[in-house]
Fold each of these.
Amino acid sequence: MSFQKLANAFGVMILAGAFLWSAGVVLSRSPVGRSEKVQIRFAHWNLESGLREAFDAVAQEYMRIHPNVEIMQVPVPGRVYQTWTQTGFAGGTIPDLLVLGRADDELLTNHFLPLSEEVSKPNPYNAGTPLEKVPWRDTFLDGLSKSFGVDSLLETYSIPIAAVTVRMYYNVPLWKQILGDTPPPKTFSEFLEICRRVQAFAKSHQDAIAPVSGSRFTGEMLLGRLFQSQTQKLALRIDRGDTLAFPKSPTASAFAPGFGTLDDPDIRDGYAIMREVGQFMQPGFLELDRDDAILRFGQGRALMIPTGVWDFGSIVEQSAFDIGVFEIPLPDSKDPVFGKNSLGPVSEAGAGLAVNFLLSSASRHPEVATDFLKFLTSQPGNAIFSSVSKWPPGIVGVEMPQETLAFDPRVEGATSGISVAPMMYGVGDLYRVQAQNLHLLFGSAGSVEQLLEGMRPEFDMAVRSDLERFVKTMDDSSRALDARIGAWEFLKRDGDPAAVARASGFWQAQNAQESRAVWIRSALAGKEVRP
Amino acid sequence: VPGIAEDAGWKDLAGLRFDAAMAAFNADSSGEALIGEALAILSCPPRTESRVDAADHLLSEAAKDPSVAAAAEYFRARILQTHRIQPDLEKARSAFDAVNRQFPQSIYGQMALVKWAMLTAGDSAHPVRDFDLMAVRGEALRDPDAVRDFHLFLADAAAHWGLPPETGLKHLRMALDSGTLRGPQLGTTLVRIGELSRELGRKEDALEAYGEFVRHFPRDERTFTIRQRMEDLR
């Protein structure tokens, strides 16, 4: 045998060996399809400290009750979450349950199952509690009124699990060092005074301590709210239908021809208050992200940081000092500079719950996945979640964790104002135009006037393109309802009350959407005149 | 008596299982099945003129069956209004007008008037005249869902066209009295009735609407403001 033949035979043997080894490894695994247990996977991007542990605790308890079920958590970093989910939709690998921050009607109807029928029945895991006979829907703090699909499709697609609010965290020992026994501020003026004292302290001690740890994210948490405090009255003035709740989305609808303008004094004051408070964040904060801000606060280089309860665990974990928390004081009507636009503190009631789970239409066990959701949002299940994560519960009657009592949503308050665009997590042209010019507001030589002049050339075009895009989305959505209307109109002929209600609901949803589109188009055509 | 195939098809269509719906409707050649197949075609991507033409053809065939003619003609008008790549709104407006006049008792004939009103308002050069014309046509509506949607739209028109608050309030009340308002729109309608009644000095009416709102929507962000309004009125 020649050397060449020997080498070939050796190669074949190696390949055969590798194949046999691979086959052995694959066959010895316990893949999804071969497991005797029903596997339910859920994915989310909330990697904040405490949340994964809370999900694990709830899953463990569920699996103890249901030994034939295996609950698997799939945490995915937020930066890649959208790409990851889109790949999953395309490849059919999406988990049974998925947490989403937003979802349009097309995404909902194509990839998820409605839970409307389920939420109208009591949650069996509430047996023995005061919620035993209460429909699942009414056991949520917001009655699922903000669930995805409720407004436009009249279907309940998402199940939230927690109530989230934003507060100001502060470094307790640093507070005492700089401010002594000064209590947390109750008014906006007191807050400004505290910020000025911190700045003076930093200057006199040649220290780089910032009053507020800045980033584009914390800017949105604090400055975005302050802006909206200045547009509360404007929102009522342009609320042509007397609804007391001018639509927040898209923000461009507040600036359609005949509605608000960049030159409304309220808008100028909104940007003025942002600049006023923005100076208490470290220079260049617009270029930083949330993690940078948390790190700076944890290093003791900022006295305060505005963010939501979702960061509570991470901040406590990363900070080697005691943490205090207070509600961000907005200007009230007595404020000498910004009071004229204010209706007072903003209600956090009905603001919507968070961590919204959706049931994938590709789930092999939708009934088991739904059952797990029921447990997660029962009084016992949500209590486990809340006690471990420290996130405020989303279910009626579940106690707030002691550590996060300060995050209890404010119920007594007015409605919030409008915004031009968020500082972060926005979409559309108006968001782009504002984002590209914000440096003109916050730069050391910046001003409201410079910002407005920077935005002005593109502002009207941005409003128009955002609204045209929005109307097109509404057209697509209402057109898609024709099939459902036709179906339920024929299915209701036997008098089934559920079918009658469905048909009625879809007509209402479609006509409401089309009516709104009529008036947006009318405004874009210049037919709206501001009263 | 509807066939089993149609009911299965409608259930599939309601559940957005378009392929299954198509298969179920294909098994029958009744007018109802033709409408189901057309709606399934209109719902399935991609939206192309040839597919819309195919759906329109099925609907025109279905319209020959008197038992489903109203539905078939209504959806043909919807094709003109919204399903075509290039909608023809003027033709759609005429088509809805015709559906309403031809089938005034049918839900489709009555909903056609809602669509007709929207297309009329969207193109209106004479709002006050058109508003009066729409209001007169609306008096014939009897279906509670159509009454609700028609008068809600007229209330919106009154608000956007700057008509007196009494006008908007009247149409909001008619929408509420239909008894079919649900969800967030029920809440918003109650708020609007309360606000307009307060503006017009109708204290008791305002309190009644506000009270209903607070009872139905205790966790709405407007509830605190509404409670304050109620205290002020008392």
Note: Chain B touches chain A through 62 residues (CB under 8 Å).
Amino acid sequence: MNRRSFLLLGAATSLLVASTDGAPAQGLPLSTLTVKVLSVDRESLDRHTYRRESFQTGESSGGWSEKTWFVAKAQIEAVLDNNHGLMSGAVIDIRYIAVKSTVPAEVRDRALKAGETMTLTVFRNQTGFWWRQPP
Amino acid sequence: MNRRTFVLLGVATFLLVASAAIAPAVRLEVSTVTVNILSVDRQTYERNDYHHESFKAGGSSSDRYEEKTTFVAKAQIETVLVNDHGLSSGTVIDIHYDVLGGSAPIYARTPPLIVKAGERWTVDIFGGGTSFAGRAWKRPQPSSRPASISGGP
């Protein structure tokens, strides 16, 4: 192996390591739209209830959290920032998750309502468009 | 950087990576003892319930749960079979253990570990002092090999 091959091999190895580390940091493209919500439906619900008891101290605790998956049918009225080739007038499905919980920090209860017009940001994954809810 | 330095750096890096990969793992000290159970107390209980429901056409719902109870048994050592902790017969130790349960099929297939005061058990223990965690609980049978009972941490 000559010096050039050795250098190329070293560079390739470092690039491989760097790309593995950096891959999850890549964000998905976002689009910002003004939409009219035509309908909203629940798709599924997960509920987790938990209980802890100590027989030494007599203390007990518990709580629950509930995630509901929604899909809204929405008609695009205006495209403010377009990274998905979207057009006014198109009807798209927008999914989002609402969270109720006994832990206040977990709660995410913003919802889309049929009939309302709102401006929102979406990203797209394998299952379609998702509402990126503000924190 | 000349070629020789570069090659030496490569060899040093390889040796460093190779030595890390083949470094021996530190062995957990585990003793095996046959004990007489003096008392058993429940310490904690945890339960998680999960419910899933699909609202799509033809969707279904499901429920499952998991539970864990932790116990501490006070036990007097009768025989030390494997001694990693300088144990001796007659010593009274605490043995902590968990019993898991739930709706998953594995819990129906495996009998739960039930330890009672007055019983003799052979158990692997790890920890230190007089407080240990127990696993691989077996009923000692003098004439044949003890049958394994599930349970432990």
Note: The CA atoms of residues 71 and 95 of chain A lie 4 Å apart.
